[in-house]
Amino acid sequence: MAHFINVILPIPLERQFTYRITSEEEQVLRPGMRVSVPFGKSKIYTGLVHSVHQTAPEVYEAKDIDLILDHEPIVTLQQLKHWQWIAEYYMSTLGEVVRSALPSAFLLESETLVLRNTETEVNEQELKDEEFLVYEALLHQAVLKVHEVAAIIGRKNVLPILNRLLDKNIIQLKEEVFEQYKPKLVSYIRLGDGYTSDESLELLLKSLTKAPKQSQVVLALFQLVGTTKKPISVSDLITTSNSSKAVIKALVDKEILIEYFIRTDRVSYHGTGDSTNIKDLNEYQITALNAIQQSFKDKKATLLKGVTSSGKTEVYVKLIESCISEGKQVLYLLPEIALTTQLISRLQDYFGEKIAVYHSKYNVHERIEVWNNVLNEKPKAQIVIGARSSLFLPYKNLGLLIVDEEHESSFKQFDPSPRYHARDAAIVLANLHEANILLGSATPSIESYYNVQIGKYGYAEINRRFGNVLMPDMELVDIKEAQRKRRMKGHFSERLMEEIQETLDAGEQVILFQNRRGYAPILECLTCGHTPQCPNCDVSLTYHQFRKQLRCHYCGHHAALPESCAACGGPDLDTKGFGTQQIEEEVKKLFPNVKVGRMDLDTTRGKHAYEKIITSFEQQELDVLIGTQMLTKGLDFRNVSLVGVMQADTLLNFPDYRAHERSFQLLTQVSGRAGRTKKRGKVIIQSYNPYHQILKQVTTGDYNEMYREQLYEREQYKYPPVNRIIKITFKHKNYNVLNEAADWFAGALKNNFGGVVLGPEYPPVSRIRNQYLKHVLVKISKSDSLTKNKRNIKRIEKSFNAISMFRSVRVIYNVDHI
Fold it and tell me: Which of 97, 153, 397, 555 is the most buried (most CB within 10 A)?
């Protein structure tokens, strides 16, 4: 009887591929194990076994697998089910989900090796110069990689040369899969077996009298063994003995010392792990905790709405403590990597080494170690803190999921596919594991609050700050009026400057919020009005002053700052608008003795950059911190008493149905950074339109009024949460082909869906990286079947792809577009 496996390949294929296996392999292979398989003409991919069966494929002949890469499955059956749901719901392929979910070192791809064909007689005179260089290298080295061949001949395109050598039978090509992950081994030292007794040690020290440094090392080791029961690492011994690696190597060579290696994790967290540190809850927190536990009994996802600084984290800690006491795993999802820094140190005090962290700033080796620890249910991975990708880890015994700041748009993945929403995917994951799930926020998303109103979610709230601290005093400043009366210094109103000075004089800290990085978004010629544009995107270049360059925030294109206008040659160039760099410069001029920090995408590119900025601000090494929306998300700074919002209008005037909801959330969250201990904080919001409804609702903290207004508008215009939307984006480098393709697709959709199709329309930035974009929005009523509608759209796409002219147009689906 023939045996087969279905394999998920990490490429965007609609179907799984079937491969033939032997009966011995059938005994070993199980779903969730990795195999390397041939695909295409000669490429070898790492695939994931989906199922083992005995049904041969009908359309093609099954190939044999290349290698079995695992002894045990690295992916659980529940993970495969979850990934299948993500692929189906978000209209992507299972292969794309696998590529997104697995750390890249698990997805080994083959590397082409070049070998010399020893059976061919070679006439060196007939070889061209570059061919001879490759042949000569193979005489000295048995195997070359393609990038090594490129280095030898000094050009990138080596394919024509390799093809010519193949035609002449001088070389052979071989595909080989390389394991990328290497465990970290730490070297330790112990005394040789012959020197364990006191007498032998005495003799040894006498024999080393002429080698004082070696004698010093042996004495230091003896000392360390006496004071610690743990193994002694080479680095500790070097430090204690004030010696070097060379001295220790000499002793190892003499077999006086023995070197051995222990495999260790690259990242480990140490803390007191003292659960007595956990703070007692106040009456409001206890009421909320009881409501959450009651809701968990009813098997409902639960929303915790707690005002900023109300102590939501302490409620989470109580739930985590209860969950891990039952021996279950906890997943704590955060929208921003920056938050993990503060949260880890807090949770370490409570839970010690039970914490693992997983996010994109970790390198591939560190991620694999966390993956293996979660898979093997190690104590050091009982609590996982992570960004959205931590949803994909191989949990076996998940008891609790916490989605903090659940309203955040960072939970939605935009590129590449799958374009999933981590909050919604977490709810499905909790159902698969029969685990409890808690969504927490001071400003819940309208969808989640709507689900509470219709009884789908449980609900708890804390509407008082911890320690009964008053909510910050909010003040709106009319900068249009201030400019008219010439009471502005740069972008600072007199009122904001007064408050900053008072705050600094009191020895307290200030946060300034401007949701745009760089120095200025536009550089303009005062003579002809020309603005430098990105050559690859339909957007103006942003001026970055510290590097003296213009940068595109879409494709990364950059150019040196021009000395004169490219259009008219005029020397008068001026900036329009302002970003965080300009605010930083102005603060330094207005308050020369103040220490200023900046937190935006430009200053947080490094692995530990977030940590450094947050720590220095926490330890009051900085007086003023300027930042983008990274600052708004749940950070807890004890000494901040003033928050300044530089210009609220950029948030409000945005072409998006969520603009007002987002503005309310962002302004409320950034305001919540002020006055988090005993003293009431102050918030100053500068705006050209201080009478805007949203700004009034922010200053009074009226979430319910904002919710009612936004829900009414969305009911009128058929937007979520009352309807579902799928955004379809078309991408192509040819403007005319894109127009025709988008019109054809939209026409087919309108025939199927009637009046709930909007577009095709160009977005505000209609060309990115030399690709034109056009959007179509499909609105689907909650009463209609979403699955059926998705099937219809996919059917239209098949007809669309059958038209040769449209085949090169890329179609991108974004379900529940945010």
Answer: 97
Cite the beta strand spans of 646-702 per DSSP E: 682-687
Same domain, 218 and 333: no
**Residue 609: strand, helix, or coil:** helix
Contact 619, 627 (CB under 8 A): no
- Torsion, CA 22, CA 26, CA 32, CA 34, rounded to 10: -30
Q: What's the mean pLDDT when you consider all of the chain?
A: 84
Confidence of residue 426 (pLDDT cuts 50, 70, 90): very high
Q: Indicate the range of 247-251, 362-366, 407-411 predicted with least confidence.
A: 362-366
Phi, psi for residue 626 in degrees, rounded to 5:
-105, 135
Mean pLDDT of 240-252: 80
The residue-averaged pLDDT of 127-138 equals: 84
Q: Do 155 and 281 belong to one domain?
A: no
385 and 460, same domain (yes or no):
yes
Tens digits of per-residue pLDDT, 631-683?
776 667 778 888 898 888 888 887 788 889 988 988 888 887 777 666 778 88
> From its phi and psi, is residue 68 left (phi > 0), alpha (psi between -120 and 50) or beta?
beta
Q: How far is CA 682 from CA 359, 482, 663, in A?
A: 34, 20, 19
- Kindly report the three-state secondary structure assignment for every residue of 439-482: EEECCCCHHHHHHHHCCCCEEEEECCCHHHCCCCEEEEEEHHHH
Q: Give residue 236's domain range.
A: 193-255
**Residue 218 lies inside a defined structural domain of this protein:** yes
Measured between alpha carbons, how far is 728 from 507 in angstroms, rounded to an integer? 52
The conformational region for residue 371 under phi > 0 = left, psi -120 to 50 = alpha, else beta, is alpha
Residues 6+ apart with CB under 8 A from 411: 333, 335, 388, 403, 421, 422, 423
Q: Output phi, psi for 726, to 5 deg.
A: -120, 120
Q: Which two tokens stand for residue 363?
A: 């390198």
What tokens were used for 457?
Answer: 């979610």
Residues whose CB falls within 8 Å of the CB of residue 159, separated by 6 or more in sequence, listed in order? none
Do residues 513 and 534 share a domain? no
Backbone dihedral angles phi then psi of residue 552, each to the nearest 5 degrees: -95, 125
Number of domains in the chain: 7
Tokens 């904001």, located at residue: 496
Query: Coil, strand, or helix at residue 338?
Result: helix
Same domain for 341 and 313, yes or no, is yes
* Helix ranges, 376-527 (H): 422-433, 446-453, 479-484, 494-505
Q: Tell me how far apart the alpha carbons of residues 554 and 542 are, in angstroms, rounded to a whole number.
A: 10
Using only C-alpha atoms, the chain has a radius of gyration, in whole angstroms, of 31
Q: Decide if 186 is inside a domain.
A: no
Residue 561 gets which letter from DSSP? P
- Alpha-carbon span 212 to 197, nearest angstrom: 21
Same domain, yes or no, for 407 and 347?
Answer: yes
In a domain, 182, yes or no: no
Question: Is residue 83 within 8 Å of residue 45, measured between CB atoms?
Answer: no
Single pTM value for the model = 0.80
Local structure of residue 16 (DSSP, 8 states): P
User: Which of 712, 734, 763 lies at the terminal end of a domain, its last residue?
Assistant: 712
State the Cα–Cα distance between residues 102 and 74, nearest whole angstrom.
10
Q: Is residue 184 part of a domain?
A: no
Structure tokens at 405: 């700041």
Sheet holding 63-64: strands in order across? Answer: 63-64, 17-21, 3-8, 43-53, 34-39, 67-68
Give the H/E segment covering residue 509.
Answer: strand 509-513
Task: Find the angle CA(435)-CA(437)-CA(442) to the nearest 5 degrees.
Answer: 170
Cα–Cα distance for residue pair 812/793, rounded to 1 Å:
12
Cross-strand partners of 383: 330, 355
pLDDT in tens, 722-753: 888 999 999 999 999 999 999 999 999 988 87
Q: Residues 375, 378, 380, CA angle at the centre, nearest 5°?
A: 120
Which letter does DSSP use for residue 412 in this model? B
Instruction: Please report which helix (H) or strand (E) contains residue 787, including its range.
Output: helix 786-801
